[in-house]
């Protein structure tokens, strides 16, 4: 393995072990830190994707970086509200700790312990693939986007919710950055007793892609952009793209 490959592997292992460590307190910290606003972003993501898919029967939805499973539950509940039948919802995440929590909360979904770059599902077998607050933790992002393309059916949808890097923040954006860089890590660190893990959050956003860059990467991986919007002082960005090749 090349030295970059080795470094990436080590970086990725460190991230996954951090999630293993914070898994037991992840949901509590998340609830306090997000104050519930993420729910409206998740609902919006599901409703828009169901609208774009325009199907009343969906064979498979894959939630990559599923963590403790909440996005899978949104997919299920929003589908029920709209009378959409779903064959299977599958969660994929390399952290045993996070998936163990998900399994207890949502035993009816199926799970795989695996990275975004090695999804153990057949080619062209999913209608929708989501990754919510997960893509910034994927060290080999380009390989992961190709893998998403492989797993999706032609015209399948990739749905990304993420905290994106903001290059020219407005005054409101600066307030957001202060909150996310200085206040949030302290709250998460206090609840989880793991300050290092929560200091990683703003660092990972700082290092992460801008919205324009992410759109280009999706297009390079064979997707056509359908929707991009940032919500709540640009804290969270939703991107939806369709597999075109
Ligand atoms: C911030 S949590 C988000 C969990 C969940 N999607 C949500 O919306 O609450 C990030 C998740 O990414 C997972 N993760 C880290 N590296 C990954 C990788 N290479 N491939 C897939 N998931 C990964 C972590 O284990 C963790 O569960």
Q: What is the CATH superfamily?
A: Vaccinia Virus protein VP39
Residue share in β-strands: 15-25%
| Major sheet strand order | 3-2-1-4-5-7-6
Question: How many extended strands?
Answer: 7
CATH topology title: Rossmann fold
Termini separation comes to 30 Å
The first-level CATH class is given as Alpha Beta
The low-confidence parts are none
Number of domains: 1
Count of separate DSSP helical elements: 8
- Overall CATH architecture: 3-Layer(aba) Sandwich
Which sequence of SSEs, written as H and E, runs from N to C?
HHEHEHEEHEHHHEE
Entry summary:
By secondary structure, this protein is α/β, with parallel strands linked by helices.
Report on this structure.
- The protein has a single domain, classed as Rossmann fold, CATH 3.40.50.
- The longest helix has 32 residues, at 3-34.
- The protein has helices at 3-34, 38-53, 70-82, 96-105, 141-151, 171-192, 195-207, 211-220, and strands at 57-64, 85-92, 110-112, 126-132, 152-162, 223-231, 236-243.
- Helix content is 52%, strand content 22%.
- The chain contains 8 helices and 7 strands, in the order ααβαβαββαβαααββ.
- Helix 1 packs parallel to helix 4, helix 2 (38-53) packs across helix 3 and helix 6 packs antiparallel against helix 7.
- The protein has 245 residues and is an alpha/beta fold.
- The chain has a 7-stranded mixed β-sheet, sandwiched between helices.
- S-adenosylmethionine is lined by residues 12, 15-16, 19, 64-67, 70-71, 93-95, 98, 115-116, 132-134, 137-138.
């Amino acid at each position: 393995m090349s030295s970059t490959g080795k470094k990436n592997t080590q970086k990725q292992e460190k991230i996954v072990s951090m999630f293993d460590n914070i898994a037991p307190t992840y949901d509590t910290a998340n609830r306090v830190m997000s104050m519930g606003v993420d729910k409206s972003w998740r609902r919006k993501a599901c409703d828009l994707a169901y609208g774009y898919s325009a199907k009343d029967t969906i064979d498979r939805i894959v939630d990559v970086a599923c963590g403790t499973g909440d996005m899978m539950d949104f997919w299920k509940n929003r589908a029920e509200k709209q009378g959409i039948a779903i064959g299977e919802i599958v969660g994929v995440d390399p952290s045993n700790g996070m998936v163990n929590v998900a399994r207890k909360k949502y035993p009816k979904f199926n799970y795989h312990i695996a990275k975004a770059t090695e999804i153990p599902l057949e080619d062209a077998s999913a209608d929708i693939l989501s990754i919510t607050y997960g893509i910034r933790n994927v060290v080999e992002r380009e390989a992961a986007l190709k893998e998403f393309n492989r797993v999706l059916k032609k015209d399948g949808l990739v749905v990304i919710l993420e905290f994106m890097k903001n290059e020219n923040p407005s005054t409101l954006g600066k307030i957001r950055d202060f909150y996310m860089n200085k206040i949030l890590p302290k709250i998460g660190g206090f609840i989880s007793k793991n300050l290092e893990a929560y200091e990683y959050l703003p660092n990972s956003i700082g290092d992460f892609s801008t919205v324009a860059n992410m759109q280009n990467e999706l297009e390079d991986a064979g997707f056509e952009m359908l929707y991009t919007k940032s919500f709540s002082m640009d804290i969270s960005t939703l991107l939806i793209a369709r597999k075109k090749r």
